[in-house]
Amino acid sequence: MILSELLIVSHMAKEATASSYALFEAGLVENKVLREICASASDRMRSLFIHPQLESLVSVGPWLIKITDLNDTIPDVLDKQGALRGIIISSLALPQLAEQLSWGCIVKSPDDKGLLLRFYTPYVLQHLSQRNDLNGYSALFNGIDKWFVPNMDQQWWPLSLTPALNTEYDKTHKTIELDQALWELLNGDTDVSALLRIWIQQPQSKHFPACIQRAMVHKALNKAQQAGLSRPIDKKIYALHYLSGGNKEIQSSDMTRALEKVTAGNITLTEALLQET
């Protein structure tokens, strides 16, 4: 559902004792807009960068803001700024929820190092929310009724949150401990990371919020795989064409003929495309 529908549905569905919150990244909001939001809603905002080591990053980090009612325009403003990361329904009060979510900002890697993690991005949350066996899972997600995040089409969907399997650890510890499998997923595929660094330098990437850009790169590389490409460089070139022009670009006659040449002989996609120009 789109954001306006989500806000209506979440308002109608939540329990009388629950509240709706918007999670956003302050660093993505224009300074003038952010100042206006702070001036009008400072009493219902809390930073998630509570840890002393993160104090200098508060102005660009994640924040929670309580949504007052259906006439509250701030979620829409944040969405248009490309800064809105999630809509949360919870029975927890704002200070409690902000403190709880702050524990997701610094996690432990498999080698026991503390790391800053943008845990609230859709890519990370889709993996993190599925690992209810992790130490720290219940400390992060308890008391949250619903958590909605945007997908690549800017449609909003709910996370599947399940009861934690290990609650004894979380009674005395709150830090999320990543195992090797999850660490590798969150650390990212090297092809994805390399292609993302290239794409974010291009104007087309600015049409997509930062929170879904990595997922877009994943999607583009999957399309390259589906097209029958096996060489890493060919997949990157094909993916960049998709990211630059969508289906129209990869379904063009030039690309179709180039793909036929790649699959028919020992020629790279770049060489094949050059022959078509």
Summarize this structure as a short list of keywords or feature phrases.
single chain; 277 residues; 2 domains; two-stranded antiparallel ribbon; 13 helices; 8 strands; 47% helix; DUF4123 domain-containing protein
Describe this entry's structure for a reader.
- InterPro entries: DUF4123.
- This is DUF4123 domain-containing protein.
- Residues 21-131 form the DUF4123 domain.
- With 277 residues, the protein is an alpha+beta fold.
- The protein folds into two domains: 3-187, no CATH class; 190-276, no CATH class.
- The protein has helices at 3-13, 31-41, 74-80, 94-102, 122-128, 137-141, 168-172, 180-187, 190-199, 210-226, 232-250, 253-264, 269-276; strands at residues 19-25, 45-47, 62-67, 84-90, 106-108, 114-116, 144-150, 156-158.
- It is globular.
- The mean pLDDT is 85.
Q: Give the tally of β-strands.
A: 8
State the distance separating the first and last CA atoms.
42 Å
Q: Give the CA-based shape.
A: globular
Summing up helix and strand content along with how strands pair, one would put the structural category as alpha+beta
Q: What fraction strand? A: 5-15%
Describe the main β-sheet briefly.
Answer: 6 strands, antiparallel
Strand order in the sheet with the most strands:
2-3-1-4-7-8
Count of separate structural domains: 2
Give the topology, please:
Blueprint: H1 3-13, E1 19-25, H2 31-41, E2 45-47, E3 62-67, H3 74-80, E4 84-90, H4 94-102, E5 106-108, E6 114-116, H5 122-128, H6 137-141, E7 144-150, E8 156-158, H7 168-172, H8 180-187, H9 190-199, H10 210-226, H11 232-250, H12 253-264, H13 269-276
Antiparallel strand pairs: 1-3, 1-4, 2-3, 4-7, 5-6, 7-8
